[in-house]
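Comment thread on ticket #2218

A.B. wrote:
> Attaching the input chain for the structure job we discussed in standup.
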Amino acid sequence: MGPVPAVAAIRLAVRQTLKDHQPGDLVLVACSGGADSLALACAAAFVAPRMGLRCGAVTVDHGLQDGSGRRADEVVRLLRQRGLAPVESVAVVVGREGGPEAAARTARYQALDHCAERLDAKSVLLGHTRDDQAETVLLGLARGSGARSLAGMPARFGPGDRYRRPLLEKARSVTEEACMAEGVVPWRDPHNADPAYTRSRIRHWLLPAIHEALGPGMPEALARTARMLREDTEALDQWAASALEDCRHAQGGLDTARLAGLPTAVRRRVIRLAALGSGAPAGTLAAVHIEAVDALVTNWRGQGPLHLPGPVVVHRADGRLAFGERTLDGLDAVTTRSGQHPCAATPV
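C.D. wrote:
> Ran it. Output below, let me know if you need it in another format.
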């Protein structure tokens, strides 16, 4: 594409992403200092003022490497020099749940959520590219995931579509070229080349092997597949949200007879919505959990209650699935922490 066209392409993508904003709105860029987010920040710093918008940035220091605080300070100085304001560095403590990559992601989004709410930002821009999308699809395949995972990363998500990915249709090489044209030097995260991380092995080993075996264009094909699956998944999700209302039991929970009459894909989505509404964390609620609850509907043999992440307890009784929580004394409660039955809550 070349350096100058690359800058123009990224600026156009940012403009299209922000076209629903109003003058005076604040846009934040989540910037690690890598090529993708740095090119995005430079483009946003150029585009936002011309649209009457304010543009700031947040860099998250995960504290996982020596000198990470110094690196974060350097990113802050660079972005301020490019005219972004406010620009903040936020240090987070990364836990262990779900593995290092998932734990770092959880800590990062918690920090970004807090900054967005405190600064009253309309949106937070993320620098994920088409190559990242292809890697995500391959990760889903490796894990044996369903359509939701294979659909990859959405272009927008979060409350009010807070999080947006303008570069999801752009190749990673475009951001490298844009940084060169902008005169900025991106930071090279050593974790991205560490074979201890699954995504790194996919990036440096698997994708090149696929490219050699099947020819060029695989990232585009994988991203296109993800986009089509996402359209299908969104349609099924809408169906499930409507079916959830129809499946409510008069005594609380879900009516097993009505559930049994739904197609499998819709029924399991209804179960997932009910589990999420009961307090099961989306990040740890896996397909195996949903399939186990589904068996209470389709393969009922009098089996006992199931324990989901959260901790959420599901049991079948009197033609209904009841979702509750496991209390500290070991007894299974039939209400959520709020005291309301979880299926009365708005699904997420």
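A.B. wrote:
> Thanks. Noting for the ticket: The chain has two domains: 3-128+158-192, 249-344.
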